[in-house]
Specification:
- The protein is mainly alpha-helical and 63 residues long.
- It contains two helices and no strands.
- The protein has one domain.
- It has helices spanning 2-20, 23-62.
- α1 (2-20) runs antiparallel to α2 (23-62).
- The longest helix is centred in the last third of the chain and has 40 residues, at 23-62.
């Protein structure tokens, strides 16, 4: 959930920066969006790794 929130926060900052001609705020918003996407991707990878490890552990128990 944190990744999506960072992306939304970033979009708002970027829009505010564009409206006020504040390049720093605009860049900060873009960076927040990237951070949000990275967090989202990391969470997906972690979930897949956890599922794989659990499947392997189950296979070893049943072997």
């Amino acid at each position: 959930m944190g990744g999506k929130m960072d992306q939304v926060k970033g979009r708002i900052k970027e829009a505010a920066g564009a409206l006020t001609d504040d390049e720093s705020l605009k860049r900060e918003g873009q960076m927040d969006q990237v951070v949000g996407k990275v967090k989202e991707t990391a969470a997906k990878v972690a979930a897949k790794v956890k599922k794989t490890v659990e499947s392997a552990a189950d296979a070893l128990k049943n072997a």
